[in-house]
Amino acid sequence: MRKIKRFLILAISVIFIAAGAVNQGFSSFFLSLPFVIIFIYALKGVLIKTKIVSIIIAAIIIMPLAWKHENNKIIYPWIGNEFIASCGWEAIQYEESYTGYSYETLVYKGADINEKYVISKRSVPCDVAWELTRVFVHHPDLNTLYYPVFSIAGYESTISGYELNNAFKYQFLKHRQISSSNELQSKWTNNLSLLMLWPVIPILLSNNCNFFVCI
C-alpha cells in the first residue's frame, strides 16, 4: 500500500512539473517548484536504484517539454509551416525599448504606427510565403500574448497576437488549420499548462459552491 501511495505521489508530481515545463503564462515554471520538492521528498528512503530510475523517467518526460520554448515543436507544432499573406504589409523597425524585442514588427496598411519610436520602414514583398520559425510570449496585464516570428524573403519579423487575430479575421493572413493566435500552441500542452492554476482551484471551487448554494 505504501509503494502504491509513493508511486501516485511521484506520478502526480511529474504531471504537475510537466505542466510547469510547458506553461507559457507569466508564472512560467514557478508554480511547479512545490511539486519538485514533493517529488524529491517522495524519493527519500527508497533504494538508490529506484531513485535513479525515477529521476531518469522524470527527465525523459520533462526535458523535451522544457527545451527552448520559442522553437519547440511540441509546444508550437506549426513551426516550419508556411502562411499565405495578402499584399499591403509593412515591416516596421521600432526602438527595442518600445517593443521589448529586436525583430521588425509586421503591420498591415492603415494600422496605427507610433512614429516617435520608428527607426525604419520597408514594404513586405507580395506573394512570398511566411515561414513560422519561432514563437515567443509577452504578458501584458498578466495575460499571455503570443508573438509568432516569420521568415519572409530572408528577413525575420514578428506580429503581436492581437494583430495576428485581426489578420486572420480579415483574411490578410491565412493558414489552413489556424484561425487565432492561441492556436499556435498545441492544444494538449495548453490544456496541461492549465494545471498551473492549482493555487486558485480552492477559490474557484468555493465560488462554484456558493453559486450552487452548497452546504
How would you summarize what this structure contains?
The chain has 215 residues and is an alpha+beta fold. 38% of the residues lie in helices and 20% in strands.
How would you sum up this structure, described in words?
- This protein has 215 residues and is an alpha+beta fold.
- It contains seven helices and eight strands.
- An eight-stranded mixed beta sheet has the order 4-2-3-7-6-5-1-8.
- Strand 5 and strand 6 (145-152) form a beta hairpin.
- Helix 1 (2-22) runs antiparallel to helix 2 (33-42), helix 1 (2-22) packs parallel to helix 3 (48-66) and helix 1 crosses helix 6 (187-193).
- The longest helix is centred in the N-terminal third of the chain and has 21 residues, at 2-22.
- It is elongated and about 65 Å long.
- The two termini are 33 Å apart.
- The model is unreliable at 211-215 (pLDDT under 50).
